[in-house]
Design a protein that fits this description.
Layout: E1 3-11, E2 14-23, E3 28-36, E4 45-51, H1 59-64, H2 68-74, E5 77-81, H3 121-136, E6 139-149, H4 151-162, E7 170-173, H5 183-193, H6 197-200, H7 205-209, E8 218-223, H8 229-233, H9 235-245, E9 250-254, H10 261-279
Parallel strand pairs: 4-5, 4-6, 6-7, 7-8, 8-9
Antiparallel strand pairs: 1-2, 2-3, 3-5
Helix pairs in contact: 2-10
Length: 280
């Protein structure tokens, strides 16, 4: 698995790095960012995967969240992949809309044409990227957690719930809790997976909560001033589903916060501390 370095910066006594590689899963060149805390110079460290939201790349979280300070405090690496396949030959939304196609992979394995060849972000996050990270960096793959924001929060929750043997904990900021029930999700899932809504349930956190047996530690923060809360995020549906399934989740409504990275920066330290309790 060949990777090529794009950039490197010293940060909180660790290294913030960015790499490029060819993805066999997605059949295109991909980029990812990784923060290695200073503890990684002495041996392998736990890892937190961060999945970003619509329109984002691997760089948004790295440059805006301020997570590196806390990652150094606890000795945890952070891997931030891109949100979708990229390239001139990759199909995009015909109308160049922000909520589908490039920048909007939704962390699913597409089954419909023309998306099925490249849009396999679920397999990329669960299988290919972790193998690449383990082969190239001082990471303890047995100590892995995952987090994300918005579309990435949806990705983190669904991936973790379906792979409890891989992830020790999962957290999310402003996640799309039930894509089956919101315009963003209905558009994406119908195009990536087809019209059979039974297939959509495999990528819907509200639907999965009632099916899974493992009870991973879950932390979710949602701002009550988020303008996407009612129409797109559907947090009350997840609260209800978790209570009905007796799945203990910490779902916190944060007064006055919106959907932005200012919100994420305000609570990312608490999220990394939450993961550290399950990784260290």
């Amino acid at each position: 698995m060949n990777i090529s370095k794009i950039s490197s910066f010293k940060c909180f006594d660790g290294e913030q790095l960015r790499y490029r590689h060819f993805s066999e899963t997605l059949q295109c060149e991909m980029t990812f960012s990784i923060f290695l805390p200073p503890q990684s110079r002495e041996g392998s460290v736990p890892v937190l995967y961060w999945l970003s939201g619509l329109t984002c790349t691997d760089e948004n979280f790295v440059t805006k969240a301020g997570a590196q300070q806390y990652a150094t405090d606890f000795g945890i690496a952070i891997v931030a992949p891109d949100t979708s396949p990229r390239g001139d030959d990759i199909p995009d939304d015909p109308e160049k809309a922000y909520d589908f196609g490039l920048g909007a992979g939704f962390y699913v394995n597409a089954t419909e044409e023309p998306w099925a060849k490249n849009y396999r972000m679920y397999d990329y996050i669960v299988r290919e990227l972790p193998q690449l990270i383990a082969a190239n960096f001082p990471i303890n793959s047995d100590l892995t957690s995952i987090s994300g924001h918005s579309m990435g929060g949806h990705g983190a929750l669904t991936i973790a719930l379906k792979n409890p043997e891989v992830f020790r904990s999962v957290s999310a900021f402003s996640p799309i809790c039930s894509p089956i029930e919101c315009p963003w999700g209905q558009k994406a899932l119908s195009l990536y997976l087809g019209k059979d809504k039974s297939k959509w349930q495999e990528y819907d956190t509200v639907a999965l909560v009632s099916k899974v047996e493992a009870r991973l530690p879950v932390l979710i923060d949602q701002g009550d001033a988020d303008n996407f809360l009612e129409e797109q995020l559907k947090t009350p549906l997840l609260i209800e589903a978790a209570e009905h399934a007796q799945f203990p989740m910490s779902i916190r409504m944060q007064p006055g916060y919106d959907h932005s990275y200012f919100f994420i920066a305000s609570f990312i330290g608490e999220h990394i501390k939450f993961h550290a309790k399950n990784l260290l």
